[in-house]
Queue: 4 jobs
Job 1
Amino acid sequence: MPFRLQLDPAQTVSEFAELSGRLMRGGEKLRSVKDRDVEIATTPKKEVFRQDKTTLYRYDPVAASSVKAPVLVVYGLVGRYTMADLQEDRSLVRNLLAQGVDLYAVDWGNPTRTDRWLTIDDFVDGYLNECVEFICRAHGVDRINLLGICEGGVFTVCYAALHPERVKNLIVTITPIDFHADQAEGRADHGFINLWTRSLAPEDIDRLIEANGNLPGELMSLVFSSMTPLASLTKYNLGMLDIVDDEKKLLNFLRMEKWLADRPHHPGEAAKQWLKDLYQQNKLVKNEFELGGRKVDLRKITMPVLNVYAKEDHIIPPQTSRALGALVGTKDYSEIGLAGGHVGVFVSGKSQGVLGKGIVDWLRAHERGA
Amino acid sequence: MTPNAPPNWMDEATRLAKLWTEQQQGFIRMVTGNAGPPAMSAAAQPAAAIETSLRQAQDLWRTSFEKLAALAPQAFAQPGSMDEVLKALFDPGQWSQAGLGSMDRAIEHLIEGPSYATLWTLDRKLLRAQVLRAQWARDLAAWQLLMQGAWSEATKRFLREVNATDGTPIRSWRELTDLWVDIANATLTETHRTPEFLEAQRRLTRSSTDCRLQEREIAEAYCEMHHIPTRTEVDELQRTVYELRRDLRSLQRALRAAEAAVPSNAQAPTKRPRKQPARPAAVAATRKQ
């Protein structure tokens, strides 16, 4: 019986020659790429409000309004909001604008050690609330639509529970709610952050924050990389070489790398709440999570809710997100399960026609009471 | 102590210290004019006093060294004695041992003793940092051992696949590489989820954190010596600024709510004014960084 390994020497030599050629061409291409070629978050927008390091942007409209209440995009503190507008043809922001949504986005800035004392209370009850109030004043409305992404989804859920009178519709995407449901599907490649966080003692987290003043962005990058260890190790010497002859794909790859490298530090006290109260103690699903002295009661979320999750999300496994349906106080709860991974639902070519359209269709169907 | 018993190390040291202190007191009294031979003139008194004192000090030092030399064998005969400590410090055989544990123990023996409130505190901080660095090195070694085990297991699985007689033939270098990447990825992911790996990673995170905090304590000790603000002080200051900002935001919000609650002729108290959703032209900044 022959072994599986049946390398043809001539073909192997030919493959190595091809690889050498790609390495050379890749080197030349990378040398010729300029920063302007891989700019991200380029959709025109204006700064309309600022408080401390938080900035509220309003995107320039490109189509006639089709949704009455404005939409505020809220990203988390683990990454940057620019993921929603990675590049011209892969941009949730552009897709929403093209369909007549009046769109705002909040940018938390780049937290440094000086921001170590900021808590999730400050972000939800403070800065996010100020942004919502600003938009309400600017538009003369009482309620707006919130669109939360990942940790930002948790912020919007908390805000909607604490200030239901200000939220017309709540849309959450790739958002963890039940932080202990990571093993619900029994997938070995899902939910490593949940496992990692639960393996730490609470005082380990306290000392980590005390030593660094924040949850370092580099540490979170390392944790994300270790979820797909070999893919992380080989993405430059194999993955990038595979696409080096396709300029469009190469630039897409580099834009993604740019976003990944732009990982901010997570303010320390907020990180303690995120890791201990939510990841470890799972307080949100128990209605025990406290912000500003008030318990976040998910049953007070009585406005319509749309929950978008990614079926292959290894960072926020689908069941951790879908748990929201059974916990909110509204009966008007819908889900969209998209093919793809955590970031893929925003930046993959396939999802471009699906995500934005799904959100806008749902918003239009909920125009009543505007 | 019986007349034939060898002198006790601690008692002798205490007695010598007492003698030294008495000499110092006598010297100070003479120099300051509180005591001295009455026959001398006032101008000659300090010079004579200094000469006497120096002579007495020389005698005391000589006696002290003689006593210490006599007591040294007693000290070196005790467990963890100085010669063993020095041997441990300078023996290259000790250096080859994994980590820094033996070196730490040697240094610890050298400086250990009663813990005074203000004496040798920096030495203790430095020693503590050394001990924590050793712990970090041990935790890193344990973590690396687990990872090496995972890589070895991946290699075994890969070789088993490559040498299998069933399955799709591997005809190209790229197919071979892809097989290795898949197997290694699955094996490492599997390892990352084991309780042993998670515990090793937790320990490594904790010990590296402890090291950083101890280094900060040392840095802060130097900062305090030179009147430079410490990280802890800056953190406290930032906390104050943070609390003031939070209070300011709260007051601004309360003020807005109070203003909105005042009824005016132009609008109903609970209804917001309807405006065209025109683009806000200018930045409505409340405060800029």
Job 2
Amino acid sequence: MKMVKRAFSAVPALLLGASPAMAAWSDINLRVGVTELSREIYGLHMLILWVCVAIAVAVFSVMIYSIATFRKSKGAVAATFDHNTKAEVIWTVIPVVILVAMAVPAAKTLVKIDDARGSELTIKVTGYQWKWQYEYVDHGVSFFSTLARSSDEARQLDSGIDPGSVEHYLLEVDNPLVVPQGRKVRVLITANDVIHAWWVPDFGMKKDAIPGYINEMWFRADEPGTYRGQCAELCGRDHGFMPVVVEVKPQAEFDAWLEAQKSARQAAASPAAQTAQSGNQIETVAALRVANAE
Amino acid sequence: MSTTHTQAHGHAHDDHGPARGFKRWLTTTNHKDIGTMYLVFSLVMFLLGGAMALVIRAELFMPGMQLVDPGFFNTMTTVHALIMVFGAVMPATVGLANWMIPLQIGAPDMALPRMNNFSFWLLVAAFSLLILSLFMPGGGPAAGWTLYPPLVLQTGDALPLAIFAIHLAGASSIMGAINIIVTIMNLRAPGMTLLKMPLFVWTWLITAYLLIAVMPVFAGAVTMLLTDHFFGTTFFAAAGGGDPVLYQHIFWFFGHPEVYIMILPAFGIVSEIIPTFSRKPLFGYDAMVYATASIAFLSFIVWAHHMFTVGMPLAGEMFFMLSTMLIAVPTGVKVFNWTATMWRGSLSFETPMLFALAFLFLFTIGGFSGLMMAIAPVDFQYHDTYFIVAHFHYVLVPGAVFAIMAGVYYWLPKWTGHMYDEKLSKIHFWASAIFVNVLFFPQHFLGLAGMPRRIPDYSTQFADWNMVSSIGAFGFGLSQLLFVYVIWKCARGGRNVSAEVWDDARVHGLEWTVASPAPYHTFDEAPVVK
């Protein structure tokens, strides 16, 4: 009931456009992000958006002009023409030219996205219903990352907890992925049960996590900070509750963090290591698939 | 002598009409009866699928889980889509085809009337199964309408029911398509060459070929799901040497033509209505036909743009990006030609025209967002977000559904012999046109800001626009009750209309040469087209 009341009190504010959050451009547009790729993608997005807006203004103007001018109620008499070859050729050729102009920069970015060579750190991401596993493959560090307890409690049906009171509601995890700033990080993505998709909007990319496949993507985050995303492929009941959180740290801090992880793991034969053991069989199949594909 | 006999015969039919009661509808082979049944069926499904959409929008009204379990939420998104695609939009266009194609080409009926009856009743069986699947142990289908494995194989007892429902609906569509092709190829009035056919007939002819080409592919895909689940095959299971991505390729080889199956008849309807209310012939008729055929051809070579994030090779991504961008050319030709049809016309704004104009503007917006997501690198951001949801709802709701509503208002006086309530129909139009934008436009913002699709709850940053969208959804949903009332009222009575119904409609199609309401049997003698 409290929820309903709160909802209704919000309606007038919305109708008046009074909510300050609505004014923010970042709330209605793609994020620029913090990687070279995300900035290029944002640029392409804005380019095609403005091309579409320009065409829309032109086409809609003609439509609106026709609707306003050629009205029977204003005594307009219909012309009888039913084609005009010159006009038809023009409005077939112009779109082709615009499309070619769009395709060139898009193709360039696509090639760049595909090039994961020269990476400095490799992380294997495995999707599970409903959590992520992160493995620093060259360092023997691996752990699971699940929805933070505070969000998990609040998201239960009729929990009575106001989501607004939970910090980073649904976008917080217990163990975030940690990566170094300014390094090319290669991410190998797979899944252990159904298909998931690993997505951090600020890095500009998402990729499906598919059982039996190892997909590849890369990013180089320029600015330290915490970046949040979500699983982007329907993966069952709790699909909405497996966020991705990545902390980007300066190299020195990252190294210290990695060392701490390693020693913590050596101290106790961790359950995570055992899980990795039992996961080996599936990894073998996956590796075979990749080998066959190549 | 024989002429007299034919006329007497025709009159006799007009007088006694069809049998009465339920048996008439169960056994009818009359294209008008079957068309009506298809249309009523699709309206019922539209309301049912709409109710499910309202469950979705109610849960998404604000952050937090208030109403339903996340599993049931997934069932709602899945079954809402299956019902709207296969139960509402497709049967509505088939219903219009049944009613109007014989009337537009001067044929006495569909070529295969018994199969026509069978294909309708199969559809009823199909959707009974699908709705039954909601009550199975383990819940209804919840893997999304795309039914991707391995997730879909986690479905409980609902899985075989949903798959058989798809088989039956597919068989029904294939039969409908065969019937339409045979009718158009064989029963055209003397003098009606292919390039004199009304655009609605043309778009349906092409749609029918698409249906025959892809429905069996879909049936094959879901049959493989069935054997994977029950008979130990591993078509789509990596652990057994299968490939989950193979399913996606097969599905979208069906799925992309499928979206044109829904939109091409809508193009046809709009191409009928804009000339009538512009009092001017359709601009660039030949170009419209060729553009439709080009779109149909391209629909077979663009499917993987639905799968840019599965990890295709670079060459694959490049090919599907470029082929997808090409679709903008014939689609643009269509939009320009509709605009040119209005240019220097004499426009009036009856309800069918209003819906057709809303289609023109709003479908074009859906086309623009489609072009944006053709750009593969940017689609890595858009994919599986609300931006996609906004895009396909713009092309399907103010696109296909508005065109169907335009068609219903356009031909309703021909079917019933009465004019619909003009005032109420205009209220229905304005309410629908405004709320559909309140409903779907903010979803562009949500998607760009990073909200994934198919989630039952969301981070608080998405709260404002979700609330706006939900308000739009309830407004749009309620407006459709008015649509039902207007149709009901028009069927019951209203101002009698002439055979032509609209000013000089006679020049725009043969359907306006027969009486209103259209007699139970029309064109016992074929008209001659000059």
Job 3
Amino acid sequence: MTPVVHQLPTAYLLLLPLPFLLFFGLLEALRRWLRRGRARQGERDWSLPALESEPHDSLFSRWDVRCKLLSLLIYAFMIAALQQLSSALLALLISVLALLLARTPLHRALMRFLALGGFMGMFLVVMPFSAPAHPGDTLLVFHGLESFPFNLRGLELAATLLTKGVAIALLSEPLLGSAPLPVTLQGLSRLGVPAMGGQLVLLCHRYSHVFHAEARRLATGMQVRGFRQSTSLPALRAMANFLGMLLVRSFERTERVMDAMRARGYQGRFPETVELKMRPGDLLLSILWLILGIGLLLADRWG
Amino acid sequence: MHIADGVLPTAVAVGSYLVSAGLLTWSARQTEEEELPKVAVVSAAFFVASLIHLPFGPTSVHLLIPGLAGALLGASAFLAIALGLLLQSLLFQFGGLTALGANALMMGVPALFCGWLFARFRGQASSRQALLGGVAGALGTGLAALLLALLLVTGGEDFFGVAKIALAAHLPVFIIEGVVSFFTIGFLAKVKPEILNQSFCRVRRPQDAVKEGNQPRKPRL
């Protein structure tokens, strides 16, 4: 069987960018909307980490954190293994339902989606043109551009990857955002992740906000002295010194913080904030969730 | 650039998780307690650097700093990068779940190689260190782009086109990263030389320490 080839007049080529423009336009509009929302809230003090508002009481916040992490992570791998667009769309629907159940704030879900945009957009644009023609494929060939056939199988593959990616990215909100960070880290350490990792994540979380504030301060200082960004060598040198200064200052500051923590009795362990309790319901939910994943996989392969 | 979830074949995603876990354990063993603040600084810097956009022609690029992380931390660089990625996924709503292992490999392995290169040939002169830092910076990005392309290619021939484009897209970052790392390492070598890594592997075996009459090293955090 040879590929099915549809000859199209060159004028149709003008229609081709339309879906892609729509996709990127949607991304840009969402980005602007999020930025405007943030600007309305006013400038916040970047040196402080965003105090996480207590996650909404939901099915996911009541689920034991160890069961939740383990079963949702395995489920995420099952989604990653899907091959058909239809089952990927079903997985996306399940993720959206999970978001609604977890009562995740809309802007967090949108940020997860936007973070994927650039990388997956590249797949959407490149794959239809780069996927080699296999027997049974449908090719759109534009008059005058015979060497660049548009392969619909490539488009479908890219769309499947995008759908799977979004389904997993959205799922990480109920997984990671439905419990306070220390509780999630406590769950991870109970699952065998060395405690040092968890402690370092907590410290890094604090430091990254401090650095962000420091970086803004340095950048403001550079701007009032007339620095303008460009790709010239002096500008790159100024940026490199900025990065170096940021590292030196942050390092000295971090060492002082560490000394102060040790002086107050820190021995590499923060007290555990909650007692983790596993009930039969947690296990049941995990099992149900895994069965859902297996069902999706079976439908994908033999459906 | 992060690999998104669902792109890699499942076997590759699971395999890279396992390899990353092994490297992470090794890297954590190489990290001494006194170094933890530095690891935390580089992890946070890894995150903040991705927010600094440098203009390049009509578009802008952001720094990846695997080479710089290697030059600063040596064998602990893998730990710092894996933590940075976990932090991004946990708190800043980007980075993947199933692709976390592959992303850690993509950035961490170049960091380890650059760390080894820097520690091996650094010498004493600050100009030599700056030059080597520049090489490490460029090489770190180049290797990361190469690993990204290799990981994508495991998906089959449908992914060849995307892999080539991803490789080409890293070319400007490769150049800018090299120049910035050259100046940054030069700056650090003059201003605070002790922040630059002295030797790749730090751990001395306890029996060596006893032989030299020192106390065995303190238990880690």
Job 4
Amino acid sequence: MLFLVFSQFMVLDGGVLEDDNQVCKNEFAKFSGSFPEEIFSNGFEFDVLNYFKVENWNKIKKNIFLKANDNKFLRIIKSDEMEVYVDPESRMKFQSDSLVIFLFTRYLVVRYLKDHVCIYSFRPKKENKK
Amino acid sequence: MIFLISGITITNLNGGKLDKNNSICLSEFKSVRDFILTESGIEEPKILDIKNFKIQNFVFLIKDLKYKLYAEGWTFVLGYKNNYFFIDHTSKAKTVYNNYKFDYFSRIIIARLVKDKNICIYEVELK
């Protein structure tokens, strides 16, 4: 299943996959604090972390939206800079202080840069993983 | 058992004071709406309820808001650019756009910090 998601976001009509995704790693640090600290306090594990040079903005945006939908992600927000989706099946129970809460543990985030786009699918980092 | 009731039931928040004048929130709504409009053919977001709080202590207020919405069954998704997004996970709806079917969440709460003085809390329906 992970392989399917990974391969789905390696080819996007309207963009060319770049070999080096260091830019995306740097970008991620700018907004990683946006997500619920209760689940991401140990950091993030990426299922997908891809960097594309955009050749056609309309095509690539549409293609991302449709592929996200195919992979059962639901979009929560969009802006000129970013789109955020969640996997509705990833909703899990957490204990926060004295309250039992539910949060999503699998996100898909699309970050739009000047002429590139970063695609991230991530989950909470497992504890005690070396 | 958790029930989500339409309409924001929160009338007091630790760190904030309820302001019954919603004019600042109404004029701010365009900025909120821009985050949730889709190209999917879904109509304009409909405001189900608005609550406006004067901020006395921002950290306390956000913490209390999250806990009260959690307790009512809302799921916090992210805080982004002075907006805090919560969804009703039971509000999964379907639509069709360009002959393509897809799912979305139709009920969202967005709490937006306005000029560091107010928090506007909107419950919004997308249909």
